Each structure stands twice: as C-alpha cells, then as structure tokens.
Amino acid sequence: MILFRRLYNRYVSEDRDFTERLRSLVGFTPKNLDLFKLAFCHRSNQNLEYPKIQSNERLEYLGDSLLSTIVAEYLFKKYPSKNEGFLTKMRAKIVKRKTLNIVARKMGLDIFLSELNATDISHSMLGNALEALIGAIYLEKGYSFTHAFITDSLLRDYLDVEKIEHWDDNFKSKLLEWAQKNNRHVQYQVIQRFKKNQRDCFRIAVCIDSEQLGEATDFNKKSAEQKASRQALLQLKIVQKDQLIGSPLQSG
Description:
Layout (H helix, E strand, L loop, with lengths): L1 H10 L4 H11 L6 H7 L17 H22 L5 H12 L1 H11 L1 H8 L7 H18 L1 H15 L3 H5 L5 H11 L4 E11 L2 E10 L2 E8 L2 H15 L17
Antiparallel strand pairs: 1-2, 2-3
Helix pairs in contact: 1-2, 3-8, 4-5, 4-8, 4-9, 6-8, 8-9, 11-12
C-alpha cells in the first residue's frame, strides 16, 4: 500500500511535479504529500487552494528538536577533545536562524514556499520551513533516515563546519564586549513595531552613549539587533567590510 501511494504520487498524481522536486531534495518519494505541503505553509498563509492546511509550526517544533540533538551528536563525535563550551558554541552557530535561513535558500526551499503561500516570502521563513521539513522527514522515514539526511546532506553538502569553527558573526556580542572594555554604554531601542504580511516587524536602533550608530528592521527582535550591531561595528571601525566577506554562511 505504501509503495502504491508513492508510485501514485510520483507518476499519476496532479502533484507529481511537486513530488519529483521534493524527491530530488530529500532522497525519497513521499507517501504523505499533505504532510510535506504542511512543512512549507507559514501561519500567515492566505492560500485558499489548500484550506485544510494550517501552518508548519508543529512540524517546526519537532524538526528543531531533532536538528539540535543530531547536530550535538555529530559535533561530539567530530571533536573528541573539545570541551562542552566549544561544542555548545558550535551547535549554536549551526542551528541558529541565520544559518538555517541561508541553508534553506541554498536548498531551494524558497520556491516551495512561494508555491504554497499567498504572501511575500521573507528570509526568516526559510529556516522555519527547513526545520518543519526535517520534522516531516522524521514522521515519514524515522530517526535513522533523518539522522543521515542531516549529517550527510545538511552538514556536509550545504555547510563548511571547519570554517564555521573559526567564524564569529555574533555582532551584538562583539559590540557589547568592545563597549565593556572601553567603558561605553550600549542601548537597544525598539523605535517602531508594525505589521507586515500579518506578522510583527521590529525596527531597532542601537545607541552608544546616546548616539545612534545603527538601525535595522526584521521580523525578529534579535535579528534586528544583530543587523543594527553590525552597522555600529562598521561605523566605529571595529570591523571592516572586507572582514565580513567570505563567511561560510555567505548566501551569495
């Protein structure tokens, strides 16, 4: 029955084009197409073509947990002589939203999102969809296949873990460290909060001793703070633009 359903989805179903592209991405023909469509449906979705599909948030929750666990195991085995602090920092670099957004775009998940959502596709939706996709893969294929998908595909084909080890793009942390060493005061302010595509959006300013040196907008406060901090670091000449080129997470 399972084999029949997969053959039907691939060769007969009206969704056979979707099935074939998904098959190329995940390495198998899905049995439950609705599950994988759900993985790409954001909560702001207004697409009436799939009225029974709500959002990918539950799958995202599941995929996030799986990704964190499998990445932790991968790093534990890859770096047998490194301490807990190093492993924690490395995992944070890999599973953070910015990394997942870029990996998801490299995988072409933006195309799936565009097809299944009648709304503008923001950069921050990509990482959520990747986590939801991992959740869907787990429900259909189990832990062993999901483990292989993450370690053999995500961590080896789309990321350079060795480069990530030496790359630090936590701009807020860098700015706060500089301020502490130089006895300067850093303050982040929400200067505007508004709705975009039915989602909360934040405009954040960063001030050094009451002087605004950076401003950025994002759907997530932390992301906006990072972007504003990056501007401040450039303004203060703590980092140069050429130092920000060549990141292992560069999206192109």
